[in-house]
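Feature request disguised as a bug report, sorry. It would help if multi-protein outputs had a clear separator. Right now it looks like this:
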Amino acid sequence: MSRLHPLPVLALVGLAFVALSAAGAAQQSQDVTWVTSDDRTVHATWYGAVGGGARGIIMALHQGGSNGRAEYEPMVERLGYLGWDVVAVDLREGGDRFGGENRTAPGDGNYCAALPDIRSGVSYIRARRADIPLVLFGSSYSGALALQTARYHNNDVSAAVAFSPATGEPVDACRGEDATEGLLAPILALRPASEMENAAAREQMEVFQAQGHQTFVADPGVHGASMLVEERVDGDVEPTWLVVEEFLLEVGEIDGEGGQP
């Protein structure tokens, strides 16, 4: 089982400086839409980096029965202080989990059908900002789809972070681990310790490790991107946050200020 090391002290100081220097700055947001290849209108909210001047963009994708704004709302400000725009997407297979409303479509259990929502979103974002890194955050079923999208859009997606990426029968046609063999884009897969008791989840993490991708087991932790939210975990989430922040720093160093390689 692979665990990433915490950030060095100097890196932590740097992150603290970013947050402090942006203190008091406003975080702007706007609602946006795009149309998929199968003519569905997808709704999202684009949150700007705090103080402007984004160093990169995170496309934040929710778990089943949820919506982008409610699931990621507790994380948006921190990511904004770190200099990242966040595009919180309402995928089909949505609902009111964590509160809020999915503006795109309720779910019918066909998780793989949401792949065009993400792929069209990547094209929409890149048409507006092609000069900075684009990182996909996927949660549960959208974790698998984020990895699939990283494969399809290898020139547009800089990296992917998959929180509890779904595996097994519900996503048989779009499993994340089927898309990551030989993938050059950096991948970080995370699961809470409780899920590692499941054989399929454990085997998936072993596949990622064998492929050379980064993995992390959050303890304490909960399913999906909520492992970054203290109130949902009911425990210390800082070790998990530091792993994600270190990964984002590495992505920025790989892409540099000139955008995509």
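(second protein starts here, but nothing in the output says so)
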Amino acid sequence: MIMLKKTSNVILPLLFVCLSLVAQPVQAAIAVVAAYQPEIAALKHELTSKGAVFSKQEIHKGVTYYIGKIHKQEIILFVTGMSVVNAAMSLQMAIDRYPIDSILYSGIAGGVNPAWKTGDVVVPERWYYHDESAYFNPDPKHKGQYVLADYFVKEWQARDAMRAKDPNYPAYTNYGMIFPDAVLIIKDGMHKPEPVHYFTADPGLIAIARKAAKQLPAMPVSPERNAQYHIGGNGVTGSVFLDNREYRKWVRKVWHAEVTEMESAAVGQVATINNIPWLVIRGVSDLAGGQEGKNVENVYDGIASLDAAALLVKMLEEMGVKN
């Protein structure tokens, strides 16, 4: 009994010390994220040139997370991989592993609004899926019409009434056999999945983006012009590389989109379900399907990535000063 008591008196304080060390809170961090190599290279360049220091890196299920600090802010830098599934998977892994309190995603996009030129930067307030949809057969009895499944008819018929209630509800119309739709999500507080037509970026981060954009120096795209920064409007996401002008025109009509790409709505969905503030910054690399001949997105992805990264890093500076 005495020996056991003495042993426990030694072990318990040691356990308390060990548990205290393990339980020390890790400072909350901003996730700084991109989809693929040119985008993350631009972020690393802008971050390190402004004083970012990365003290640690960890690899989890193949994804490398760089842990560092800039402007008093803890940051975690990583690449999700391209497309919605990779973006959602890698981001959720990061949220489960690290104390992330906000998300800034940066990269390139194809222009949908012809007003935007290569190197311009667009920061949409809302992101929609353009390929969350149903494909239906033509109606053999009525030319130009399609045979809709029963489950789909009610919502499709109600789209005009929905738009009257919510000005951000898409102006749904079909593109041939393609009939766009909402995505179903569920999160804490919901009793069943509910349709969501768009995901809204954090208003506070939108305000910081507006302030930061005004403070950026001129960013030359060519000898003739500087990059333009546009904060607001809509963006669209899909698991397709959109390089068709007629489809792009339809996307503009339905969602009033400024840009299109392959990750942002998924980022918004994951962040919304986890209740984490988020924002996506996109540099325009091309006008989706607007060129004659072969798409040249790869020619301008570096410039577009740098212009987007410059805004993100300026936002971090603003957030660091604020704290």
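Even a blank line would do. Unrelated, but nice: The chain has a mean pLDDT of 86.
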